[in-house]
Amino acid sequence: MSSDGEHQFEPKADSGASKTFPSQAGLIRKGGYIVIKNRPCKVVEVSTSKTGKHGHAKCHFVAIDIFNGKKLEDIVPSSHNCDVPHVDRTDYQLIDISEDGFVSLLTDSGDTKDDLRLPTDEVLLKQIQDGFKEGKDLIVSVMTAMAEEQICGLKDIGSNK
User: Which residues lie within the region annotated Disordered (predicted)?
Assistant: First the structure.
């Protein structure tokens, strides 16, 4: 089928899966996720107005960006679609913390993941650093959404001494 002059398809690193999926605004609830201003957010408040003279009830969303903690708001007709981010949470064992603030994590397949920084949340940062200095076996939870990743939680599974 292909001759020397034809361009071959080259697969990209991205799996091709969409970073978001559509959902009707009226179906998004408190505790769910929504994309506001191109940022993945967790919904903390939803209020729906009555149908107006132009025929659409409106949903007012108040949400917190899952990566930087900023509060964002949006108003969308309840019958319209909103983008909802695919949010994944994965646990990794913490192996090392580098001088420049990057962490080395052990994946389920036995490989290492070295492209994540320590979290900016002061409390979580201190817990990770203190637990690591004490030689504890730590499991960090990494939240992934819309091609961003961040450490969002910590579990202490004991001491490795």
Answer: 1-23
